[in-house]
Design goal:
It is built from eight helices and ten strands. The chain is α/β, with parallel strands linked by helices. Its EC number is 4.1.1.112, 4.1.3.17.
């Protein structure tokens, strides 16, 4: 099993909230980047490109992209549409894991029902120009965080996070442990327990009141 196979398997069993719980320094993209398609869940290595009101670089990036890549477009947060229906169809055909554009996206009549995860900051009909070739790859800014080609990008209904590949497997494994603990809490709550029966609330508050270090944690 390859590294990407491993992290995709682990990512499929967790959500972004659990990842954030175990990695407080994880990069979280701005919630202004919203899912525009019918499929919010994605996981894959970033293929990055930087554009400003010109989408030729996005065309270049899609041509270069490999199956499973997440196309991450640094559009500077501007409103010009840097991609649309044809880009989503081309990405589907190549087996990309998704498209994230910190800029505009258009053609919602198709994109809204598209099975490819598509995120953007804006929706608008006016496309950018196609006269500025770019270099695909490297480090860009998307959703307010740096993203380097090869970083692991994970998205779901709660948002988009970016993981360093060197840390991803350990973070996802820890997130799976959090998910398992939460499942135990859910079972207890469904059986009539209170949060205080499942979390060290009283002890945590008492320690903090005494000025002692403490951490709120599960007890089940």
């Amino acid at each position: 099993m390859t590294f990407l196979d491993t992290v995709r398997r682990l990512a499929a069993a967790v959500d972004t909230t659990a990842i954030c719980d175990v990695a407080r320094d994880v990069r979280v993209m701005s919630p202004a980047l919203r899912c525009r398609s019918a499929a919010p869940i994605l996981c894959g290595p970033a293929l990055t490109v930087r554009c400003r009101d010109d989408f030729l670089g996005v065309v270049q990036a899609i041509e270069r992209a490999a199956p499973g890549d997440v196309l991450v477009v640094d559009g500077g947060g501007r409103e010009a549409a840097l991609a649309g229906e044809l880009f989503a169809r081309a990405a589907l055909g190549k087996g990309l894991a998704g498209i994230i554009v910190d800029g505009g996206y258009r053609d919602m009549r198709f994109v809204a029902t598209c099975p490819l995860p598509v995120y953007s900051r804006h929706v608008g009909p006016m496309a950018g120009t196609t006269v500025r070739p770019v270099t695909v790859g490297g480090t860009v800014s998307c959703g307010g965080v740096p993203v380097t080609a090869g970083d692991l990008v994970i998205a779901d209904l709660d948002g988009i996070v970016v993981l360093d590949p060197a840390d991803a497997e350990a973070q996802l494994t820890a997130a799976a442990d959090v998910m398992a603990a939460e499942e135990r809490v859910v079972e207890r709550l469904d059986a009539g327990a209170t949060l205080g029966d499942c979390v060290n609330v009283a002890d945590h508050v008492a320690r903090l009141t005494r000025g002692e270090p403490s951490k709120l944690s599960f007890t089940v």
